[in-house]
Amino acid sequence: MAIQDIALSIVGKIAEKCVDPILRQFQYLIFYKSNVQTLSDDIKKLELKETEVQQKVDRAKDNAEEIIPTVVDWLKRVEDVKKDARTISEGMETAKVNCLNIVRLPNLKSCYLLGRRAVKRTSVVEKLLGEGQFDKVGSIAPLGKMRFSESTPSLEEGLVSRMSTKKELMEALKQEKTSLMAICGMGGIGKTTLVKQIADQVKFEKLFDEVAMAIVSQSPDMRNVQDQLAEQLGLKIIEQTDRARAERLCTRLTGRDKRILVILDDIWKVVDFESLGIPVKGECKSLKVILTSRSSDACRDMGAEIFEMHALRKEEAWHLFKEVAEISDDSALSGVAKQVAEECKGLPLAIVVVARALKGNHTLESWDRALRQLKEYTIKELEGDEDLVFSRIKFSYDYLKSAEAKSLLLLCSLFPEDYSIPIECLVRYGKGLELFPNRRRLVDVRDKVDTLIGHLKSSYLLLNDAKKKDSAKLHDVVRDVCLSIASKDEHEFLVSNSRVGEKNSYTAISLISQDSNHDLLPFCKEYPRLRLLRLVFQPGELNLSEDSFVGMEALRVMELNHSQIEFPLSWPGQMLRSLRTLCLDDCVLGTGLSSMLGHMTQLETLSLFESKILDDQFPAEIGQLSNLKLLDLRVKSSLHPLPSGILSSLKKLEELYLGSGDHLRLGRDKEEEKDALKRSHQSLILHVSRLLCMTLASYFYLGKNLILRGC
C-alpha cells in the first residue's frame, strides 16, 4: 500500500511537471479566442477603474497636490497593458493564412502566441485591478517652488550698490558665526525687494534647503507670524497655548537635518524670538534669520548684524527708472525722463511708482506735465500713482513714539530741499515753541533734541549730513510727505519759494523770497494762529512798519535771514511781546533795532549771528530782556562797542556766544577792551549764576573759571 502511494505521488509529480505544462501550451492554441475575449473584457473593467482613479488625480491636481508615486506608476502600467491588449486584438486579424487562395485557415503558430500573450496580460490586468483601490491619490505639495522676487538679472546688475549689499549678505549667510542679520533703511528704500532677491539666490545656489518668509508689521500678531512660517514649511501647528506653539515651530526649525533660512519682513520693534519659537542665539547652526526694518536701534538691541541701505546713486536711479518705464537711452523722451527720475531722489519705491504711472505715455507733453507736477507738488499728487510712497513714509511718521519726535520732524520740513539743517536751529525753534515743556534749561532741551534726532535717524526719517556733523538732512521724498502732513489739521505749515497764500490759519510760515514787496510777504496781515515765521531773502531790503506784525499775537519764533532790515523808530508796545526766539542772522540791521528789542520782554533766545549792526547805538535794550537765556553776539561788525553792564544784567542767561574782538568791540582801544572783558567776566560769574556756557573767539584768555563750549 505504501509502495502504491509512493508510486502515485511520483506519477502525480511527473504529471504536474511535464503533462500540465504541455496541456497548458495546447490550451493556449485551442482556447486562444476565449483567452483574447477574456483579456478584452478585463481591459474594459480596468478602463473603468482607470477613469475613476484619473478623476481623483485631476481633483488632487486642481487642489495643487502632488500625485503619489505609486499612483503615477499604476497609471503608467495601465497604459502599457492597454497598449499590449490592443496589439493582441489587432493580431487576431493576421492569425489566419490563405490556403491555395481558396480558403483562409488559422495560422497555428500565431494563434498559439496570441492565446499565450492574452493569458499573461490578463493576469497583469487582474493584478492592476486589485492594486487600483486608492483611498488617496495625492498629498499637499511642499511650498517654495515659486520665486520670491520679480526682478530680472538685467535690472539687478545695473544697481551696483544693491549688488554690493547683496554680496555682503550672501557672504554673511555662509559664515557659521552669523545667525541673525538685519537689512535697515527708510521706508521705500528697497529692503523687502533685496531680501526677496537673496531668498531666490540661496535657493538657486542650494545654500539652504528651505526658505520661509513672514511679514511682521507694526502691530505684530505672533500667532499669525508663526502660521505664515509654518505654512511655508509644511507644518501644521494644532497646539493652542503660546508655549506649545513656539515649541512646535522650534522643533520643526531644528529637528531635521536641513538648512533653513527664515526671513521676518517689516520689523518695527524688538521681537521676542523665544516666544515666537525661532532660536537665534546660535543654538542651531543650520538656521539663519534675516530681518528687514526701519529701526536699526531695534535690530541692534536684538543683536543683529546691521546692513544699511541708502538712496540709489543717480546712474542707478536712471537704470531702474528706464527698466520699469521701458524707455531706452536713445529715446526721444530720455531727456525729460531723466529729469523725472532725478525728482524721485534715488528712492526706489518712488522711482517704481512714478515710472509705472508714466509707462505707456509716449507723448512729450505728458512727460513734461509729470515733471512739472513733481517739481511743484509732492509725489502723492502725481496723477496715476497708487499713493504707495506717501503711505509707507506716513506709516513711519505715525509710528513715532512721541509727539515731540513728530513735531521735530515736521520742523525739518521748513527748510529747503537737500538743506543742511543745523541741529542748533532745531534747539532754538523747539525752545521757543515750547515743544519740551518739561525741559526748562537750554542744555536739557539740547540733550532732548539730540536724543530725538538720533531716534529719527535710526528710523531713517532723517539722514546724516556727510559734510557737517552738527547738521542733519531730510530726504526730499520724506520732506514731501512731511509737508503734506504739516499742511493740514492742527499744523497748517506754509513753505514757499514765492509768496504767502490766501489762508490766515497757518501755524508756521517758511518763505524764501527774492522780492521784499510787502504784498508778497506775511506782513500787515492777520495770522492769529501763527507761531513760527521764517523768512530768507535773496538778498533784499526789508522796511518794517509799525503794523507789520499786527495780528500775529501767537508768534513765538521768528527768523529773518540775508536781509537789510530797517525798523520803525517807534515800536508799538504790544507788538511781538509773546516772542520767545528771535534770530536775525546774516542781516544788515539798521536803525530802530533798539526800539524793537525793548518791548520783547518774553524773549529767551536772541541771535545776531554774522549780522552787521548799523544802528546809531548798540542796542543796550538787550540788557532789559530779563528772561533771556541764550545770547549769540557773534556779529560780523558793529559801529559801536558793547556797553558795559549789559551782560551782567541778564540774570537768567545760560549761554553766551561772543565773536572776535575785531567784529564786536568792548572798548575804544585794546587796553580798554581787555579791562572791559575782565570786568564783564567777573560780573557774569558774580551776578549770572545760571550761566553754563560761554564761548569766546579770538579774545584774551581770562582764567580757568571760564566755561568754553565749541559751536
Give the gist of this structure.
This protein has 22 helices and 24 strands. α12 (314-325) runs parallel beside α14.
Descriptive notes:
With 711 residues, the chain is α/β, with parallel strands linked by helices. Helices cover 43% and strands 15% of the residues. The chain contains 22 helices and 24 strands. The strands form five sheets. Strands 13, 14, 15, 16, 17, 18, 19, 20, 21, 22, 23 and 24 form a twelve-stranded parallel beta sheet that branches. A hairpin with a 3-residue loop joins strand 2 and strand 3 (103-106). Helix 8 runs parallel beside helix 9. It is elongated and about 150 Å long. It starts with a helix and ends in a 15-residue tail after the last strand.
Give a quick account of the main beta sheet: strands, pairing sense, barrel closure: 12 strands, parallel
Helix-strand category: alpha/beta
Name the helicity range. Answer: 40-55%
Strand content: 15-25%
Which segments are poorly predicted (pLDDT under 50) over 5 or more consecutive residues?
698-711
Mean pLDDT: 80
Rounded to an integer, what's the Rg over CA atoms?
A: 43 Å
Number of helices: 22
Shape verdict: elongated
Quantity of strands, as a count:
24
- How far do the termini sit from each other? 130 Å
